[in-house]
Amino acid sequence: MQGRIIRGIGGFYYVLSGTTLWTCRARGLFRRNGTRPLVGDYVTISVTDEEKKEANVVAVSPRTNALVRPEVANADQAMVFFALKSPDMDTVLLDRFLVTMAWQNLPVIICFNKKDISDPSEAAYWKKLYEDCGYTVRLLSAREGTGVDDVRELLQGKTTVAAGPSGAGKSTFANCMQQELHMETGEISAKLRRGKNTTRRAELLMIGPDSFLCDTPGFTALDLPAMEPEELQGCFPEFAPYEKMCRFTQCSHISEPDCGVKQAVEEGRIGRERYSHYCLFYDEVREMKKRRY
Ligand code: ZN
């Protein structure tokens, strides 16, 4: 039988197969080939107790990816929630998140929340800024429920990692998705709630057919991943068209002469603030690298 691990805790894996949730062990699997199943894994299970819905995970299908933070396999995209106001927009933190996801090759949907209390022209400014960088951007009010359907549409048939700073409204959005889950599959969520544990681990919330949301704890700070400084520019998608105009092929776009990226910043084709964050992160990544050796 095929299924998907939607939660793992204390050596148990909860595997969803159709509309049935199986409580599984995977001991033999680890002994045989050292595979540790992850939340998000597509697995083959063999039933040990039909009545109690217990089974063993006997095989893990090849993964398309395996994220470290959160620890989840086969994610299709990330969705980040930032408040337009209250708390004020923190673009350093947003850009940190975007870099972290770009480095893991995960497309990002940016949700700017609390549009009900923000200035419309300001909201439009942020939307355009990030759309021009190549991101999918949505404005919404999770509290009022406006713009939520538009976001939901982007989640259909996908496994989405939801993240955002505390207070940005991500949990309001996730709760609203979860309420629907409770209505559709009350029995499953009741079973999951029984096992609620204080430690926060990745888990998948089913929000529709083949649609899952992986909620993550709110963050207030974010370390950049341990990357090479040269990898950073690839995490700023809007730089790409201008890199070929740099005189040096290994241009870091920091201090080299005849730099296409810096030229584009001067001409207003790349956001000045985004570029300043690039410089900030570049130093940070370089410092982190020094400390690693
Ligand atoms: Zn350059």
Describe this structure in words.
By secondary structure, the chain is an alpha/beta fold. It folds into 3 domains: 2-60, Beta Barrel (OB fold (Dihydrolipoamide Acetyltransferase, E2P)); 77-215, P-loop containing nucleotide triphosphate hydrolases (Rossmann fold); 229-292, Ribonucleotide Reductase Protein R1, domain 1, CATH 1.10.40.50. The protein is 33% helix and 24% strand. The protein has 9 helices and 13 strands. The chain has helices spanning 27-33, 91-103, 120-132, 148-155, 170-184, 186-194, 240-243, 260-266, 272-292; strands at 2-9, 12-17, 20-25, 42-49, 54-60, 66-67, 72-73, 77-83, 108-113, 136-139, 159-163, 204-208, 211-215. The strands form 3 sheets. A 6-stranded mixed beta sheet has the order 10-9-8-11-13-12, with helices on both faces. The chain has a 5-stranded mixed β-barrel with strand order 1-2-3-5-4. Strand 4 and strand 5 (54-60) form a beta hairpin. Mean pLDDT is 89; it is low at 195-199. The structure holds zinc ion. Zinc ion is lined by residues 246, 251, 253, 256, 259-261.
Radius of gyration from the alpha-carbon trace, in angstroms: 21 Å
Summarize the helix and strand pattern as letters: EEEHEEEEEHEHEHEHHEEHHH
Identify the CATH homologous superfamily of the largest domain.
Answer: P-loop containing nucleotide triphosphate hydrolases
CATH topology of the largest domain: Rossmann fold
Total number of beta strands: 13
